[in-house]
What does this fold into?
Amino acid sequence: MSMIENLENIKRLGMEEFLRNEKIRWTCTECGGTICVHKGYCYYCGIKI
Ligand SMILES: [Zn+2]
It folds into this structure.
């Protein structure tokens, strides 16, 4: 994930929409846990995204 891309998304979508997208992006589809943004797997169930 790049900072510049993030900033452009914030500008385009607004902060609220951006945060909602980020939340969806980093939520495990299997257990609803938090996905590690660096390693790409769920902290809770360990599934690879
Ligand atoms: Zn999970």
The pocket of zinc ion is lined by residues 28, 30-31, 33, 42, 44-45, 47 (CB under 6 Å). The chain has two helices and no strands. The helical segments are 3-13, 15-25.
